[in-house]
Structure formats: C-alpha cells, structure tokens
Amino acid sequence: MNGTESKAKIFVSLKDDVTDYKEIVLPAAPKAGEWTTFETELSALGINSSSQIAMIGLVVEGTPENYDLHIGELAVRNPQKVHTPAQPKIEETQIIRGQYNTVDFKLRYASKPETNGEKYYNEDVDTWYYEIYYQQKGQNEMLLTTTTSWAAYVVDAPIAKEGEREARFGVRAVAADGKTKSDINWTEFKNIPYNSPKTDVVINKAVVKPGEQFTLKI
After folding, report:
1. Are 171 and 181 a contacting pair, CB within 8 Å?
2. DSSP category for residue 123
3. CB 116 within 8 A of CB 127
C-alpha cells in the first residue's frame, strides 16, 4: 500500500438477502509498503454461526490516482475447526538443469499412498495447497513456490557463489485455514551438477565499425 490509509471496506452479504451489504472499515496499516493482517469476528457485522454467506469482498472509495493496494488473502475461518494436514512424502526428485548460479528441479510427492486404483484428493488429507522449499548447503532454507498439485517443477532456484553445490528439497502441506501446516519433508542433500553452461554472448556496442574496439563477454 502506497500510504497507510486503506480507503477500503470489507463487505459481506448473506444468502437470504444478497443486496444487504454488511460493511466494516479496513483500518490503516501501521507502516506503508509492508504486509499487515487485519482480523475481525463476523459477530461485529451481525453475522452468527447459522448465517449463510453469499458474497464477501472489498470496496474502495475516495482513492487518489496513485492508489495501490495489494490483497494477499481474504478468508472466512471457523475458529472451532481443528486442522491436521498430512505430511507429504517425497516420492521422486529430479535435478533437471544445473547452471553456475541456478538449478531447475522437479518433485513428486504424496500425502497418502494410492493403491489398487484408489484415488485421493487434497481434501482427503486436510490440505489446501503445498509449499515447495529449497536449501543450498550452508545457506538459509527458502520457500520457492506453492501449488495444489502433487508435483512441482521449479525453474532457476538460486545457487549462491559462496555456497557448496549441494542442496536439499522439501515440501509441506498447508491446511484449508491457510495457517496450519505439516512439518517439512526434506530430501538428503544432493550434488547439483554444472551441466548447462550459459552461452549468452554480450557485446558492449550495438554497432561495431571496422577497426573499432569492442568488448565481448561470454
């Protein structure tokens, strides 16, 4: 948010009267340019546990031309619901390409084995999505991406120059509340081969005249 005033309201309408918008002001952020979390109880809008929500959203009013508001998540959660997402197990790891400063890899994992033709879905293992992690040996672990799939393909995971060319890969499940998470399942540290040198050629001039010096980088 470029500023601290949200200029926004959260609105909710119920199934039995979708035109009756119940609104609550989204408060100002403590500091501009940083993520902040706002939570409120639905009772503040006169909504109880028997109500059926038809719509929930955000309305903005009186904004300047340079208004910029980023919404990370808008959710309704039941505080009585206890989530226990199953920890996924990594079934397959492939290092697709290793460059001098990046690595591409693929993971396949499962939170529950599928046998005898049985199929399972994320809701069967109390999971909304999966977080894919990466850690170069001697460096901090990194969250690289998220997916609802039981496989992930990551391009250009960074390799620090001062670190070793060994890394491990991890995955964990996130429950439907977006907060409860399983432990991370990690692979062992694996060597990252340098099997894809970069061959980009860079020249410091768009046009080179006869006898003119230029710099060429490979």
Report:
1. no
2. G
3. no
